[in-house]
Amino acid sequence: MPGRVLAVNGQIAQVDFFGVKRETRLDVIDEPVAPGDYILNHVGFAIRRIPDDEIGETLALYELLLREAESDMMAADVRGEIHASAPATARNPSAGSPGA
Question: Which residues, in sequence order, are bridge partners of residue 45?
Answer without folding.
Answer: 25, 42
